[in-house]
Each structure stands twice: as C-alpha cells, then as structure tokens.
Amino acid sequence: MQDRLHILEDLNMLYIRQMALSLEDTELQRKLDHEIRMREGACKLLAACSQREQALEATKSLLVCNSRILSYMGELQRRKEAQVLGKTGRRPSDSGPPAERSPCRGRVCISDLRIPLMWKDTEYFKNKGDLHRWAVFLLLQLGEHIQDTEMILVDRTLTDISFQSNVLFAEAGPDFELRLELYGACVEEEGALTGAPKRLATKLSSSLGRSSGRRVRASLDSAGGSGSSPILLPTPAVGGPRYHLLAHTTLTLAAVQDGFRTHDLTLASHEENPAWLPLYGSVCCRLAAQPLCMTQPTASGTLRVQPAGEMQNWAQVHGVLKGTNLFCYRRPEDADTGEEPLLTIAINKETRVRAGELDQALGRPFTLSISNQYGDDEVTHTLQTESREALQSWMEALWQLFFDMSQWKQCCDEIMKIETPASRKPPQALAKQGSLYHEMAIEPLDDIAAVTDILTQREGTRLETPPPWLAMFTDQPALPNPCSPASVAPAPAWTHPLPWGRPRTFSLDAVPPDHSPRARSVAPLPPQRSPRTRGLCSKGQPRTWLQSPV
Amino acid sequence: MSYIPGQPVTAVVQRVEIHKLRQGENLILGFSIGGGIDQDPSQNPFSEDKTDKVNGWDMTMVTHDQARKRLTKRSEEVVRLLVTRQSLQKAVQQSMLS
After folding, report:
1. What domains, with CATH codes, occur in chain A?
2. Cα distance from A455 to chain B (closest Cα, Å)?
3. Would you say the pTM of this structure is higher than 0.95?
4. Phi/psi of residue A419, nearest 5 degrees
5. pLDDT tens, A337-365?
C-alpha cells in the first residue's frame, strides 16, 4: 500500500511540474519547485528526529508545505483552464462594453492574534497526573498565499493562546477572504499510557479496540490538514505527531478595522479528538488593510490652480493625487523632499468633481473643479490642466480613486498603520510560556512605576545609560526617620529602581501633619542622623532638614 | 553621577496643578515640603518628587524658607508645579518602546 502511495505521489509531482512548465508561468513554477524541495527536506528531518518537540516543528513545516503545494496546484489548474478556454472559444465580451473597472490592490496585515481558552476543572484533568501540553499554530490563507504563525505550547496554566507574529499579504483585493485555521497536536505521544497509574492502564488497554479505532478514524479525517487528501500527499512518518484542525474562520473586508476586534471561530473538533483544546470560541486580532491608492500616488502633473474665492490668481503647481488628498507643490521636487505643499485639496466620498464648463467663458479650457462641503460652506477649487489628454487622464485617475474608495470602504478613511513583520526568529527552546495575567500581581496601592516596571521587563529593557538628572535621586538614604513630625504626601521611599515588590508607605508611622498656620517651620531633626557632620566644624555645611506644612 | 548641585540640569518633569483648600480663614495645600538649597540632603528620608518650579518661580536654587513662602502666598488659590521624579524616566522608556 505504501509503495503504491509513493508511486502515486511521484506521478502527481511529475504532473504538477509538467503543468507548470507548459504554462510558462515562471513565478508559480519557481514557487512550486521551492515548496517541493522544502517538503522533501521536512520529510527527511522528520525521519531523523528523535525528540518530540523537533518532530512537532518538522511536522508543522510539512503541513505548511503540503498546503502551499495544493494551493499552487489549484492556482495552476485555474490558469490552465483560463488559458485553454481563451484559446478555443471566441469570447462574447470581445465586442461588448469596455472592461469593468477593477479596484486597486492592497496590503492586508493581521496581527496580535489571541485565542481565549476555557478550562474546566473536570475529572479529565484530575486523573491525568502530568500537565497535558499541546502544540498549536495558525495557518492563514489569502488567495493562493499561505503563511503560518510560530508554534506555541499550551497547557492549562494559559488563559489565552497569544501569537506574536504579524502576517502580511501583499496583493489582496477588496473582496479578499482570509481563511484562518488553528491546528493542534499533543506534545505527549498520542495514546501513551506512561503517566497513568497501573489500574487505569489495564482498564484502558482492555478497551483499546474501541477508543483507538475512534482515534485512528479521527486522525485520518484530518490527516495533513487543510483538506488535503492523503492519497495525493501522504504524510510519510505514520508514527510521528499528527496535527488536527481545531477551529477555523474566514475574515473579509467587513472585519477590517484599525483596532482590535473579536470574531467567532467555527470549532472543528470534538472532545474525542486527541488534540482537542477547550476553546472559548472566538479569536481576537487586529486586521488592517492599506489599499495602494492610499499609499502610492495615483496621478501627478502640472496644474494651474485658482485658489478658492480669488478670481484672478492662477498659480502653477505640481499636483500629486495620493490617498484622499490632492497635494499641490510649488515644484515637482518638493513632493519627494518632504516640503509642505502650497495647497492641499481633500478628496473623499463626499467630494464632487466636474470637468470643463465652468471657466470656458473666461477662455480657460481643460479645467476641472473639485468641491467639498465644510459644514455649511461649499469650497470649490478650479484646476486647469495642460491639454485635453491631460484633463482626460486626471479625470480617469479621479474616477478610479472614487471607485477604489467605494470598494475599500473604511480602509480609505485614514491610512491604517501596518508594521513590516520582522523576519521570524528560529523556534527557540520550547519553554512554558506564561501569560501576562500571571505575571502581573498588582496590589491596589500601586504606583504607575510598578506597571511600567513589569511591562519594561517583559519587553526587554534597553541598555541605556540613565540620564544625568536621575543622579539627583541616588544620594538619599533608604531608611525613614521615625522622629519626623510631618509626613510628605506622595511617599513610597524608593531610592533606585527596585525589582517589583510591594511599596512601603511611611505615612502610617509618622504623626499626621498639623496644618495650623504657623509662620515658622518645625524644629530641625536630631543631629545624630548626620554622621557626616558629627564632630566636624565645617562652617558652610547645612546640618538640618527642615519640613514645613504648606 | 554627573549631577552637580548648583549647575543647570535638564530633566523630565510632570506638571501638577493643585487648588488650595480652605481651612478656617487660610488656604492650605495639605502636604509638607522638606529640603531647600540650605538644607542637608543626606537627611532626606524620602526621595520622590523634587519641585522645579512653583507658579513660574524657579525653585531649584531656593532656601527652605523661600520655598515655603512661595507656596503659601495668600493671594494665589492655585499652585502649578513642575515636579520631577524617577518613575518619569521609566514612563519615557516605556513610551519609547511601544
């Protein structure tokens, strides 16, 4: 059976390669070749793995490669079909109306992914003595592009699964569908009875037939994940870890927002699945999109502008249409050097643009006017282009922009910030990860400094030399003076940045301040507090520390 | 380290505005101040909140008495302070990280 599978697999690979070659689609062909090589590498690595954690990483790579190969194959099929249909049939649209306007592409970025878990203190956890651990990761697909997040180890001390990855898709259209799939695998060997007590072990082994049969069926159902049929791309190492699809969802333009949102997850596995995790049923993330029309200039050229309200002063400018603004610079170079434009005209969904007629009477041809409503006022700018062709191309650019804004909707209100994802570090030692919840033990009387301390330590402190003014705080003794008659209101006595611990307030030790209006201040502190001045006659040396109520 | 008393220094400050309380026929702030250029800093039991300016008046080079007077002017109901404290530096670092 295995031999037949191998033969089928080889034939499939051959077919795929041939198809890619025949299409002469070098880009897709190159990507396919790359994935096939990666897949071979992952298979070899998996066979050579001795440790479970390594096997988990290798299996994950294999799963991602398989998904990519299948998706590229699907894309190839589609393109081949389109090519064949194009050659044979006479397209009915040839004599029809011109091609439909298509919206600009954009960059879609998903980040700060967090999946809440819902642990219950049921018998399941109490019986298994050891801490159960799972390895999980997310597979994200947009069009034919597939990307994965890092793998995270989960156990019942985590309240959420939080992924650090930023995943960016570069060529998305406004009708994009971003499919998100959560895969999980047991870190312990599936079906291992090493942790269970002997009585439980005998009980389990006697009923192994039924439960293992169920497990095997469950594994086969999700073998390789993302719907790949085992015949096409079988997983070679049968004894290795197996990832199961735990949940999925699809996000579209409606889910895009410059902020965090929660979306529902469709749960795909049930309790009998060996890798089942108690998912709460939602995923939180930040899904941002930057249409190209917002970040790239869509038109530029020389214009003559009549500033609103002034009849005669036509200024020559270099206009650049970018995002929701038409910037008019004094000179073409200013656009690149970051100089402020002479004039900025807003272009948004409410803007009205008209070509021509307004100034024909004044002998100025090829004009267009842009009107915006600001409250009760309407402000109109009139621009003159150089020629009929120039006017046509400006109008075309503006119509395209209006179309893009209608398609990309909320993404065109303001540019959403997208951080270029840093190249991911290789998988580190798979230590148990705590959630921020466990690290924060915040007491009620805390100072903002405590919170910033914890956050700084978590992010990793920058090794910066402290600024000079901090030296003003380093010369103080740490002890309170119990004889001090007045207390100072804000008081935790920290002399230097301490590792986080409960602050001590001294106001409890001191006598409450007396606010009777006195002209003179309180008596100076007893001189034994200043060992430095004891026995010395240093004249100019201050010897007191006065405190006064104000 | 490099702080020399009496020399100008640049620091991160926080603006604090306090409205005085009425106690009898007096306006008070409700806390005490300690120190001054004429005091011994090594006897300071606390190390928080050094005041740089009070209502525009420079406080970095004042004696204890002068400081007290500036804070207790009968005619002023509101005191605006520029205060520096160590934890401000951590807040700056944190905002630079994010």
Report:
1. 1-75 (no CATH), 104-189+236-290 (2.60.40.150), 296-412 (2.30.29.30)
2. 8
3. no
4. -90, 135
5. 878 888 888 888 888 888 875 555 566 67
